[in-house]
Write a structure and sequence with these properties.
By secondary structure, the protein is of the alpha+beta class. The chain contains 16 helices and eight strands. It has a six-stranded antiparallel beta sheet. The protein has a two-stranded parallel ribbon with strand order 1-2. Helix 7 packs across helix 8, helix 9 packs across helix 13 and helix 11 runs antiparallel to helix 13. The longest helix is centred in the first third of the chain and has 32 residues. The protein is globular and about 65 Å long.
Length: about 475
Amino acid sequence: MNKRQLIALVTISGMLLSPCAYPLETLAKADTVLEDVSSELDNLEEKDTSLEDEKAEDTDTKDTIGSDTSDNDTSDSATDDSSDKDIEETPSQPSTPSQGEETKEDTDTSNSTSSTSTPAVVPIPQPSVLPSYQAPALYPPISSSTLDEDYSNDIKPVYVKDWSGEDAYSHHLLCQRYGITAEQLDGFLDATGIAYDKSRINGEKLLEWQEKSGLDVRAIVAIAIMESSLGTQGVASNNGANLFGYGAFDNNPDNAKNYDDDKAVCQLTAVTIIKHQNTSFKRQDIKAQKLAEGTLDVSSEGGVYFTDTSGSGKRRAEIMEALNDWIDSHGGTPEAPSELIEASGSATLQSVPAGYALSKKINVSNYISQTYPWGQCTWYSYNRARELGVFYDAYMGNGGSWKDKAGYATTTTPKVGYAVSFSPNQAGADSTYGHVAIVEVVNEDGSILISESNVLGLGIVSYRTFSAQDAKKLTYVIGKTAP
């Protein structure tokens, strides 16, 4: 790499690591900028070569040019000094070895971790832009006061073998892989090649954060890498700021100092992931793009996690995939106990799972509140049943009380449109009020699909499936055929 290329690379790196100082649209095109700079530098190189050839010819005929050459050398020396100074003062992205590259230090680490043939260094995608939480100028409804709301993430884990959907990109971030160990997580972090603070982030802490927040530990790792390169880049490297970009507004990144790592991971899950419906990395990418296009309906879709439109969510999912593969090749994980799986039915999904189809589209824009508070499970079940031609009155009570309502019979045989009334603590229901949902599909084998609200947040519709055996344990409230 020559001097011009080095200076240009340092300049562009400085732009990428200081996103708040540059227009968002400029940063989103950082890769294009680098390509253009590289192309222009190649052209300059060709011109330099041509000029050097001409100088060589002139030297043969004009000996007096030697003094000019000396002056040019002095100028080049000054340029070198300036370049060195810029390099020292400008931070750069952490280098990540490409596939197959190893260093002796990395190889030694790998050998001490496992005797398998897994590459010593895990190639992970690097962020083209270190994205911040969101831009208040683009999305006013999320304010600093909203970030400070006191959320206790009492989320019961839902376990899946690998992913709740087809892959990590569509995976619901509140679904977890059972039995991941701290040693597996430590090994993966070491294999990234990032010089991170092991007292700040390590396997034990990550598992604690998963338990406290309810967020998949694989997602926590991916977010920490993409947002701050495990705390080594951006505002996260400052005292008091967090690893996850939480609170780092585009116009005030230092606001992240108000949230330490422990607080940020819980608030991030409760506010950003659940309340604002950013429950998969794919959804986060889609919403960032819609925001940039001016088509995001924040009232129904919630705010964005990041404003970067270059595929930040996709890169996070790729890190999750890499971590999942690492776990597979370093001991794997045990099967989740059957009682933990049966207690919650399937993973809670925000879209209809593959192999299922609703008999009628859900249109919450037409739902009314009446006596049921907006967004609650009772509000949703009352309105969704009406869409399916089944009617319940406006005073059914709390979700767990629907099965006890006078004038309504119950059964253990499911039917589309029937309400499923869960007792407190049953299948993850609230310990005081219970829960209610609606049967959407009944399969020939007796397994069912239900839809429900307020499992992932107020007004958020989600889905679960229950096996035929588990479906028989539920209580279904038979609704009326007319209002």
